[in-house]
Amino acid sequence: MRALILLATSLLAQDYRTWRDYGGGPHATQFTALDQINKSNVTRLEIAWRYPIGENKRYSFNPVIAGDRIFVMAAGNSIVALNASSGAPLWKWSPPAGTTAITTRGINYWESKDGRDKRLILASNHILRAIDANTGKTIDSFQVDLRLGLDRDPKLLTVLQSLSPGKIFEDLIVVGSATNQGYGSAPGDIRAFDVRTGKLVWTFHTIPRPGEFGYDGWPKDAWKAVGGANVWSEMSIDEKRGILFAPTASAKYNFYGKDRSGHNLFADSLLAIDVRTGKRLWHYQMVHHDIWDYDDSTAPKLLTVNHNGRRIDAVAQVSKQGFVWVFDRLTGQPLWPIEERKVPQTDMPGETTWPTQPFPSKPAPFARQSFTVDDLSPFLTPADRAKFRDQILSARNEGLFTPPAQRGAIQMPGNNGGANWGGAAVDPGKGLLVVVSKDLPCLLKLDKRADEVPGLSPDERYESAFGFMIASDGLSAIKPPWTTLTVYDLNSGDIKWRIPLGEVPELAARGIRNTGTHYPKLGPIVTSTGLVFTGTRDKKVRAFDIDNGKLLWEFEVPTAIEGIPAVYELNGKQYLVFCASAQVGLTPATSKPIEGEYIAFALPGKP
Predict the structure, then answer these.
(1) What is the DSSP secondary structure assignment for residue 418, as one 8-state letter?
(2) For a Cys-Cys bond, which of 89, 132, 515, 528 suits 480, CB 3.0-4.6 Å?
(3) At 253, which helix (H) or strand (E)?
C-alpha cells in the first residue's frame, strides 16, 4: 500500500511541477507540487527579482514558464521573454499597429515533440496569432481570423475575442469568445484549430443548429440571430482522457429574453467535450433561460475525492450565484443531489421565465444570496443609507433568481459577484477546493430601448439600466466582508473554513479590519505543502495555511495585484511571481496609468 501511495505521489509531482499554461497547465488547477516553499519557511520569502512594466493600464496577466524563460505582458501590450532566474529581458514582441483588443489575462504555450518548434499563441484584434518563443518574431504562416466561419457578417462582429487565452491539447488550440452583452451578439461557438497551420479542426455550436441536440430549447432558427452562450473565460482539460470541460455564459441579450424563449441549452452549462473531435460527452445546465448574466466564468476544477467509499475523479464548477457543483468527471453524475426548485416568475411583458432552477443540496454556498435593509453596511452615510433603503423596499426582492423588472430587482450575489475568472484552485489529490468570492449586490432595472434593434419589435426592446449598489465613497452597500476566502473538503462536501480576504486601505487606516478587499478579480494558488497564496488590491501578497486559514506570511508591494500568480522551479530554486499592476483604491476601474511590475519571490540563498 505504501508503495502505491509513493507512486501516486510521484505521478502527482510529475504532473504539477511546471506552469506551462494559463492557470498552471491544461488542467487549470492553479496547483503546484513543488515543495521547496512550505509552512515552516514561508516567512523567509524575499524578493528574488523584479521586472518593471512601466506606465500602463491595469494588467492581470498570468505568466507562463517554459525552460529557463518566463513570458509576461508588459507596456503597450507587448509580450516579453525574461530570464526566469533574474528577470532580465531577452526579447520583446509588440502587437500590430492599431491593436485595440488583445488577450491580457494570459497566453498559451506549445512546443513540438522534438522541442524545435516553440510557440506562444494569443489573439489581437480578433486575429489568433503565433509568436516564435525562441526569438519573439511573429510566425506569419499562422493567422486565424476569428470572425470567419460563424455564419454571421464578419463586419458586424465588433466584439468577439476574449481577454482570456484558450487551451492547448496535443497539436490543438481550443478557444472560446467574448461576444458583446447586447442584442445581435456573435454566437458562442467553441472552436479548435491546428496549432501549426491554423486550420479549423472542429466547431461546437453552443446555440444548436437544426438536428443538433438541444435545438428544441430555443425558438426556431434562433441560431441565426441570437448570440452568446459563449466561453469568455476559462476552460480545463483532462489530458489523460482527452476531455475538454467548458463553462458557458448566458445567451444574449443578458437581462431580457423574449426573442430566445426556452431553457436555452447550452447557455450557462458545464460542457464535457471530446477535445479531439468536438463531440459532446455530457452537459449540465446551471441556469435555465438566464436573464441575470450568471455566467460560469471560472475554470472547472479537476480533482479526485473519496465519495461513498469510492475514489472518484471529479470536476467542480463554482459560480456567480455562490454555488459549488461537483460531478463525476466521466459520467456527469452529480456527487450530491441537485433539486429543481420553483423560483419567482417575471412580470415583464412578453418574457417567459423558466419555472424552476437547479439548487445543489451540497456543498453549502460560499456567498450570500439575499440582500435586505438589515444587511446594509454600517459605513454608509445617512444619505446613502436612505437611498439604498428606498431602492431595496421599492424593488422586487424575492431572493435568488428574482427576475429583472421595470421597477428594479435586487440581485445578490450580483452578476459581478460570486466567483469570477481565476477565482478557484484545488489540491487535486486531497480533494480540497479554494474559492475567492465577492459579495456585490446589484439592482436590475429594465427600460425600453428608444433605438431600433434589427429583427425585434418595439415590445421586445428592453434593456437593463443595472448598476452595482456602490455608495458615494466607492464601497459596497452591503455590510462586509466583501471578499471571502473559502476552503471546501469535497470528500465530505463540507466547508473547512472561511475568512475575509484582504482589507480596504482607507478603512484599515482607521483601524477597521476584516472587511475583505473591495472589488477583487484575483486568483489563488495552492501548493502541495499546504499553502494558499493570493495577491489583492490592498497591495498585499499573503500565504495561508490550507488546513485552518491561519495567515502565515504577508508582504506589501508598491502596486495592487489582480489575476493569478505563477509558480515554477529553475536550477533547484522555487519562485513565486505576481503581476502587480492593478488599480489601488475604492473605484473598480480607472483609465489612470499605473506603474506596474512583476515581482518574483524565493527563499534566500543559493539552491
Answers:
(1) B
(2) 515
(3) none
| Nearest residue to 274 via CA among 426, 149, 169 | 169
- CB neighbourhood size of 320 (10 A): 28
3-state secondary structure of 495: strand
- pLDDT value, residue 7: 38
Q: Grid coordinates 463540507 are at which residue? A: 494
Please name the residue that has the C-alpha cell 528577470: 87
Cβ contacts of 605 within 8 Å, gap of 6 or more = none
Q: Residue 339: helix, strand or coil by DSSP?
A: strand
Q: Mean pLDDT, 10 residues at a time, over the chain (607 residues)?
A: 41 74 97 98 98 81 97 94 98 93 95 96 97 98 96 88 96 94 90 98 98 97 94 97 98 93 98 98 98 95 97 98 98 98 95 97 98 98 97 97 96 94 97 97 87 63 77 94 98 98 94 91 96 95 98 95 96 96 61 82 89
Local structure of 537: helix, strand or coil:
coil
Q: How many CA atoms lie within 13 A of 295 on its CB side?
A: 28
The alpha carbon of residue 497 and the mean position of all alpha carbons in its chain are separated, in whole angstroms, by: 22
CA distance 543 to 7: 29
Plot region of 48 (φ>0 → left; ψ -120 to 50 → alpha; else → beta): alpha
Category of 445 on φ-ψ map: left (φ > 0), alpha (ψ -120 to 50) or beta: beta
Query: What does the domain layout of the chain look like in residue ranges?
Result: 1-62+506-607
Backbone angles phi, psi at 217, to 5 degrees: -90, 10
The CA distance from 356 to 53, in Å, is 49
Q: What CA–CA distance (Å, rounded) separates 546 from 550?
A: 8
Assign 215 to helix, strand or coil: helix
Quote the pLDDT of residue 127. Answer: 96
Q: Contact at 8 Å (CB) between 36 and 601?
A: no
Question: Between the CA atoms of 144, 146, 151 and 156, what dihedral angle is there, to the nearest 10 degrees?
Answer: -130
Q: Which amino acid is at 113?
A: K
Assigned C-alpha cell, 542: 499573503
SS3 at position 56:
strand
The separation between CA 371 and the C-alpha centre of its own chain, rounded to angstroms, equals 24
Determine how many CB atoms are found less than 10 A away from the CB of residue 130. Answer: 24
Contacts of 222 (CB under 8 A, 6+ apart): 207, 259, 260
User: CB within 8 A of 238, min separation 6: which ones?
Assistant: 27, 245, 302, 313, 329
Q: Buried b / exposed e across 166-180, counting CB within 10 Å, b at 16+?
A: bbbbeebbbbbbbbb
Instruction: Say which residue the cell 484549430 belongs to.
Output: 193
**Residues in a beta bridge with 71:** 64, 81
Detail the DSSP E strand segments found in 449-572. Answer: 462-464, 467-468, 483-489, 494-500, 525-527, 531-535, 540-545, 551-556, 566-570
Contact 422, 323 (CB under 8 A): no
Predicted local distance difference test score (pLDDT) of residue 451: 67
State the Cα–Cα distance between residues 503 and 506, nearest whole angstrom. Answer: 9
CA 315 to chain CA centroid, Å, is: 15
Query: How many CB atoms sit inside 10 A of residue 606's CB?
Result: 6
User: Is 74 in contact with 93 (CB distance < 8 Å)?
Assistant: no
CA–CA distance, 559 with 557 (Å, rounded to integer): 6
| Cα–Cα distance measured from residue 402 to residue 411, given in angstroms and rounded to the nearest whole number | 7
d(CA 31, CA 566): 9
